[in-house]
Design a protein that fits this description.
single chain; mainly beta; four-stranded antiparallel β-sheet; 1 helix
């Protein structure tokens, strides 16, 4: 077993390692209509294969409700742009198989991923919400976030 004192980045507790990785990850945040969406991105070296033009990232998203009313996330719309400017539009119900209901002063967190054929790119999007009590529908912006791999030295994002 490795001596942790000589390797300060090694942790016996995976949750501690994850918490430290989350804190050091790039953070992108935007507030729309008292809903704050924060995105943190992570390069996935073990799932990327640059020799095959496969570059993988995970992103962790927190959706915080600072509104007076409960809302439900019904669907999402994404625009994914690779390093060559090619755009892909993705639409779907909910997130990670859920349509979460978020009460006032609560938040919902999830992690998902993206694969590009270029070593850089970015994503942005919109969540489509509804307040179940009133039926009022509204959209919340997902901030633009960059996907920059260690395999490209010309970071433009």
């Amino acid at each position: 077993m490795p001596d942790k004192s000589s390797h300060p980045h090694l942790h016996a507790d995976p949750e501690t390692a994850l918490a430290e990785a989350m804190e050091s990850a790039p953070r992108f945040s935007e507030t729309t209509d008292n809903v704050t969406v924060t995105v943190r991105t992570f390069w996935l070296d073990d799932q990327s294969h640059p020799e095959n033009h496969q570059y993988a990232w995970a992103y962790h998203i927190s959706i915080e409700n600072e509104r007076k009313d409960t809302f439900q996330l019904l669907s999402r719309s994404w625009e994914i742009v690779d390093g060559l400017g090619r755009k892909e539009h993705v639409h779907g119900d909910g997130v990670v198989g859920e349509q979460p209901v978020i009460a006032p002063h609560e938040q919902f967190d999830y992690t998902s991923g993206a694969m590009l054929t270029t070593p850089t790119g970015f994503m942005r999007g919109t969540y489509h919400m509804v307040e179940p009590r009133s039926g009022h529908r509204f959209d919340v912006s997902i901030p633009v976030f960059s996907l920059d791999s260690p395999h490209d030295s010309t970071l433009v994002h």
